Amino acid sequence: MTIVAFPPPHAAGHAPGDDQELALSGPVNPLRLFTVAEAAEILGTGDDYVRGRIAAGEIAVVELGTKTRAKTRVNAVELHRFIQGRTHTAN
Fold this sequence. Notes:
This protein is an alpha+beta fold. The protein has helices spanning 19-22, 36-43, 47-55, 76-85; strands spanning 33-35, 62-64, 71-75. Helix 2 (36-43) packs across helix 3 (47-55). The model is unreliable at 1-24 (pLDDT under 50).
């Protein structure tokens, strides 16, 4: 399995809208956790889309904190798996 990096959006030399290309290059720390907002930016979607995929069980998350102060995070490897599962060629 190839693991990819998800550098910060709009890194030097990249314009807004290039996030999809940015998201598919370089090595990654498999322990890297993204907020829902960061995952949404990487996917080029809104937070609601990511939360919907989480609720549907399509993206596994790491829950940190307590029930009153829960923090939902998406692991970089899990985000890569989701992207790979949605990647296909035209027939």
